Amino acid sequence: MNLYEKSTIEAIKASHNFKLSKSLGQNFITDYSVIEDIVYGSGVGSDDLVIEIGPGIGVLTDAAADVAARVIAIEIDDKLIPILNETLAHHDNVRIIHEDVLNVDINSVIAEERSAGSFGGDVKIMGNLPYYITTPIIMGLLEKGVDAESITVMMQKEVADRIKAKPGSKAYGALSVAVQYYCNVEQVCLVSKEVFLPKPKVDSSVLKLTLRENKPVKLIDEQIFFECIRGGFGQRRKTLLNSLTGVRGMGKDQVRNILESVGIDGIRRAETLTIEEFAALANAVSEQEKF
Questions:
Q1: Is 267 helix (H, G, I), strand (E, B) or coil?
Q2: pLDDT of residue 2
Q3: How far from chain centre, in Å, is Cα 278?
């Protein structure tokens, strides 16, 4: 049974009286080459643990289970659990967790599996993420310090473009700086909207986010770094002198002095700053707060 074939998907829907949920962003992949790109693009090996977010009917899960030592599939939709139990019954290395991934302690799951000896290699996270919740999922994993080697996920192309954007581009923003602070970003492939059932309105992209062992900048206070980023991009049409005023309670004169101290012109906008410049700015703010 090829789970990616439209006829199979329709047969499963009919036999389980299952209706796709727009509110959960359910769009099933119908092109096996995309599945291969995600699995092999992640670099998963025979000793690795895969944690899949949103398995749907198990298309990606099935392919990952053929390669990995162990697969943990986290699915929020209770109507998909009996379907997954059926489509993945031939695998003895798959565990299904019925839960919202935002509420799951991923590191506890990883520790449990490692303690049980179900895998001895790396942890790879993968999935076809619902468009409406892509950013909260990715940032939730990164901010909580997920104990994984990489995150290889499909998402709306527009979001992927923002994540991998460089300074000076229109797509570059707070999400770009945040993800690139935590990860090396690599595009695996582009995915046409034509290979989904139902067909979404936009194309998708698969990114591999490899978590950095060492961050690209040294920070005195990570929280201040992210506050400066949010402040700068919160009013991105404004100059840094104006957009940063109010961050950490700073007045305009304080912001002007700090910008001058790190050699950043106050008339620039946040979208022109590199991650190194944001770090220098944040560290200057941190130093000021010591006095």
A1: coil
A2: 87
A3: 22
